[in-house]
Amino acid sequence: MCGIVGYIGSKKASPILINGLLKLEYRGYDSAGLSTIENNSICVKKNKGRVNNLYDLEGINDLCGTVGIAHTRWATHGKPSKQNSHPHLDNSKTFSVVHNGIIENYHELREFLTKKGYHFLSETDTEVIPNLIHYYFNKNINDSNNFLKAVSLACSDLKGSFAIEVISYLFPNNMIVAKKDSPLVIGVGNNENYIASDIPAILSYSKSFYLLEDGDIALLSKNDVKFYNCSLEELKKEIKNIDWNASSAEKNGYEDYMLKEIHEQPTAIRETIGACLKDNEKVCFDDFNISFKDLSKINKIYIVACGTAMHAGLACKSTFETLCKIDTTVDIASEFRYRNPIINNNTFCIFVSQSGETADTLAALKLAKQHGAKTLAITNVIGSSISREADYNLYTHAGPEIAVASTKAYTSQIVLLTLVAICFAEILNSCSEDILNDLKKELLLIPRKVSSILKNIEPIKDFADSVYKEHDMFFLGRGFDYNVAQEASLKLKEISYIHSDSYAAGELKHGPIALIEKGVTVIGIITDPSLMLKSISNLEEVITRGAKTFIVTNQDIDNSDFNMIYKIPKTNILLSSILSIVPLQLFAYFISKAKGLDVDKPRNLAKSVTVE
Length: 612
Ligand code: AGP
Known about the structure:
Blueprint: E1 3-8, H1 13-24, E2 31-38, E3 41-48, E4 67-73, E5 88-89, E6 95-103, H2 106-115, H3 128-139, H4 146-157, E7 160-168, E8 175-180, E9 185-188, E10 193-196, E11 208-211, E12 217-221, E13 224-228, E14 234-235, E15 240-241, H5 257-263, H6 265-273, H7 292-296, E16 300-305, H8 307-324, E17 328-332, H9 333-336, E18 347-353, H10 359-370, E19 374-379, H11 385-389, E20 392-395, H12 408-428, H13 433-454, H14 458-467, E21 472-477, H15 480-496, E22 499-504, E23 521-526, H16 532-544, E24 548-553, E25 564-567, H17 576-594
Parallel strand pairs: 16-17, 16-18, 18-19, 19-20, 21-22, 21-23, 23-24, 24-25
Antiparallel strand pairs: 1-4, 1-10, 2-3, 2-4, 5-6, 6-7, 7-8, 8-12, 9-10, 9-11, 11-15, 12-13, 13-14
Bound molecules: 2-deoxy-2-amino glucitol-6-phosphate (AGP).
């Protein structure tokens, strides 16, 4: 779960590498480093901490090399330290490597190499890679292709996941990259090539990309890229043109990416609805066609994901059940993959992931395929690993999401899942036209309703400013509102470091109410008129015990016992989560700001979790 960047061309590599790393810091920021080829040797500059610290390193501005690799780290093996930072060199300082992923058999490999006389300077799993390359390089010293051969032999010894970049002063005009289960893209320029863990990192340099598949090895020079499989047979690959706007990956005047992304939700939702939904027409996806025959066999739907993406699934479970009349289970990917779920060819599995790279979600997808399920990926990143693995593929069009805390991806995922549920219901004829038409009409109004919430953020900031010093908060709701409570609680803890919990409001009296005492903040979400009175009485119970309350509702609640009532627009209950989460995303944001924290890069987290 690190970010890697590479450059090979005629320009000075180091500024390009640092610029790319800054865009990849969301993948980890425990340490950063780079190496370039300088006058027949490899120069390494690295240190603990943020990418910006690289600017302070002595000699960084003197680097002139036009070939280089770089890395921003989220520590897995070995503490964050200069020693454990990438790039790593082999003992002879011939090869330099950066690596994203985890080498599961590194103990074994370390032992093997130690017996061969190699020694290790870091605690990382990565350091075995340059030494293994050196070992195979020397073994095949008379082979004309020995650099490529050494990298491919080393890769075939590695168990686990990796995206690596390798340079050597012996081959100053080349770089080799390889990948398995960790993302890697190559951006093609004019007599230059850029490499990165994701497209936005190098979008300002290139719009034409090669997306590497697992097992691919690429040999790059400044004006050529050759692809090989692990047996070093040459492969053909097509270039993909990406029409994202580079400025959409920047902050555009907002103080933080998270705030910008919260405000981008009306556009993200509108773009996700795109052309799939037009007035009085059936939902229709360009690239996703499933027949009545195939769909009518389905007796079980799983929605599998992690974190916020899983919460988007929870928000849509009832939608699938209500509209399609198919039993739907939402599962955490890391649980699903190990609990032997009942899957067969009558099962339809939907995998939801913003990044499309989450290791547990990808593994769960592979498992579902092995057992004969039909699989659909819902991701936000074109060509991501999850989207390439699934039978069917749909994209949220939220644009690049940089802040670690997911916001616009969540609301776009709910929109797209809802569209899939409507589409299934229309194919299966499982729901009345009136219900579906009302839902579609409401969906088209959602972007405007989100915009109206975004015009009224002051009261949310005021309440956040009054409670940001608290240590515990609770989010309560029933039905759809409980799902939103779960997402709101996750948002708060990840960026404010305040302990928070979410409960189905009716569960409170079965235990958690013991935690309520004078001054504790309780946030209630009430959008379902049929459950309103029950939720209000649960909230009264916490008020009686001294809690401060903040209510997000679309109902006309006239109750002066609540400290603050924040009104949101009414909508179809199946869409209510999209509106009620917005003030709570802002609530978490303002608390984090009031505490002076780094909103976009919360401690211990990374945007893309490509390890188990
Ligand atoms: C969201 O705010 C989190 N940072 C995290 O829970 C995230 O949603 C999760 O890691 C899944 O990521 P994905 O959508 O890229 O698969």
